[in-house]
Amino acid sequence: MDPQELLSHLAIVLIRPKIPENIGAAARIAWNMGITRLIIVRDDIPDRESMAKMATHKAAHLIDNLEIYHDLAEALADFSIVVGTTARRGRQRCVEKTPRQLVEVLLPSLATNQVAILFGPEDTGLTNDDLKYCQMASAIPTADFSSLNLAQAVAIHCYEIYYGLVHAQKDMVLAPHLATTHELESMYSSLEESLYSIDFLNEVSHIYWMMNIRHFFSRITLTSKDANIVRTVCKKLLLYLKNKNHKDLGDP
Fold first, then answer.
1. Is 222 helix (H, G, I), strand (E, B) or coil?
2. Long-range contacts made by residues 166-169, C-beta under 8 angstroms, separation at least 24?
């Protein structure tokens, strides 16, 4: 599969971008590196002229074909691999890789999976709630001053991906097709409900435990079949507990 075909499986996702010009600059960068899919998660449609001015006429078609969603989960439903870019550290965040390290992991997966790279708002970056959808995180190594603007962060990641694809080894072993975000979120929902039913989770601890469970499954990666097995086990557990409760209450 040639680099251009592989890049068609990759999308740049800008979450709640505040400045339309930054969207245009990201479009220009993406097009220069062979990436043709740009997704915006935002409540309203940004001003087209401001975006197009920075995109220039060569990348204007990316602006005209923007995919705009109000909800991040909906935007990521069909993606199997989601990467969050962040400069913030925290115990609840994924293990971070540099963009170059990230590419080494992503390249074997591009042929068989849809991949999304997330960039947060200019002022705050991605939240923990945004990052819960991510299997891995990317942090750009810098010196003491670690503030890069949105377009610069997009440029560095797009360049590393394009460079990596051009120089990819022909004997590279391809990764399997993995579960989509929609399948994983359905699994996590069933798992959370099951853990509540056996009092493993409570209102105070459920965020902590669910974040760690997500990190665990992200490290081992799941196929659609794997996610369905976990979801089915959870449903059987809930059915068993429901029937047991009825018997304990003397219901027929």
1. coil
2. 166/3, 168/3, 168/107
Positions of CATH 1.10.8 in the chain: 181-248
Q: What are the tens digits of pLDDT across the range 1-60?
A: 678 889 999 999 999 999 999 999 999 999 999 999 999 999 999 999 999 999 999 999
Where are the extended beta strands (E) located within the chain? 10-15, 38-41, 67-69, 81-85, 96-97, 115-119, 136-138
Residues of the chain with CATH 3.40.1280.10: 3-166
Amino acid in the structure at residue 227: A
Residue whose tokens read 């680099």? 3
* pTM of the predicted protein model: 0.89
Closest by CA to 94, choosing from 142, 140, 131, 146, is 131
Report the C-alpha gap between 103 and 164 in whole angstroms.
7
DSSP string, 104-159: HHHHHHHTTS-EEEEE--TTT---HHHHTT-SEEE----SS-----HHHHHHHHHH
List b or e across 69-82, with b for residues whose CB sees 16 or more CB atoms inside 10 angstroms.
beebeebbeebbbb
Q: DSSP label at 66?
A: -
CB-based contacts of 58, cutoff 8 Å, min separation 6? 28, 31
The CATH classification number of 3-166 equals 3.40.1280.10
Q: State both tokens at 15.
A: 């979450």
CATH code of the domain occupying 181-248? 1.10.8
Residue 27 near residue 38 (C-beta atoms within 8 A): yes
* Residue owning tokens 């399948």: 183
